[in-house]
Amino acid sequence: MSVKWGVLGTANIARGCTIPGMKMAENCELYAIAGRNEAKVQSYKDEFGFEKAYVGYDKLLEDPEVQAVYIPLPNNLHKEWVIKALKAGKHVLCEKPLALSAADAREMFAVAKENNVILMEAYAYLHSPYIQSLKDDIKSGIIGDVEFVDTAFFTQYYIEDIRMYKELGGGAVYDLGCYCTTMILSLIDSTPDFVTAKAEFNDKGADVLASVILKFENGARAVFNVGMIFDPGSDRRKDILYIHGSKGTIVSDVEYNQEGRVTYTVTSGNKVYNPSINVPQNYMLEVEQLGRCIERGEEQHITPEFSIKNAELLDKILEQIGY
Length: 323
Hints:
The chain has helices spanning 12-24, 38-48, 57-61, 78-87, 102-114, 129-140, 172-187, 282-296, 304-321, and strands at residues 3-8, 28-35, 52-55, 68-71, 91-95, 119-122, 146-156, 192-201, 207-216, 221-230, 237-245, 248-252, 260-263, 265-268, 271-273, 276-279. The chain folds into two domains: 3-122 and 284-298, NAD(P)-binding Rossmann-like Domain (Rossmann fold); 126-280, 2-Layer Sandwich (Dihydrodipicolinate Reductase, domain 2), CATH 3.30.360. The chain is built from nine helices and 16 strands. Helix 1 links the parallel strand 1 (3-8) and strand 2 (28-35).
């Protein structure tokens, strides 16, 4: 069986990443696309083979054939359209960050529960077998207890983009920092009890470069740096991950959402290992997983509790930088 999906919006991430992943997913039927620009909606329909095309988001939500909705809208529109979709009885996969505050996230998950539907935040990379391999290495004890994590995510600067406007929920912490916070929270099984951060802002009120220091209740520490600072239009990026344990380390330059054959380095005592993992398209993995949740009752991989914990951390970081 397949889940009939609707896509609410014609964002670049939908066209370049998620819709191609949906087409590859074995339990996904690309049923409907909706947007505000008729020509753009029709181009998506023609390019990807959607059965239905709607001008206006409400029209898609009114279609009883739509079972699940993917929402890649600007961050400031997530709450409104997630709640509308949930109240329409649709399961929802919403792009990260799900909400602009932990309070909003709690409200959205409460609406999902009230309407007996699933809401999952779209962190495609967390579905990767590479991430599972990292977690398995830590669980095995090969590097001992995790004492410190350092991660970073840098991309190009954008001259004109929704990510550069505070009123649209833009900025490096929302756009890139949420990758780092979810990575750290996936690797350190504890709650942050100390948060401090600094940031540089553009003239539109959005942070373009941020540095964050975290300490956890179990004594572990973490730092991360994010920025939209490289040459505009260059499509350049830099991803960093270093995990320091009481018995060893893990070092990786695998990119967030990277697919194909990936390798990282584990050092334990005087032994060095280089695990190599074949990673499918991450967006396909998240769509298939939510499909199994809908059809088989599988527990969602990105749980409400995890998303809320991450939103609480983002709240503290944004407060620290004066967002």
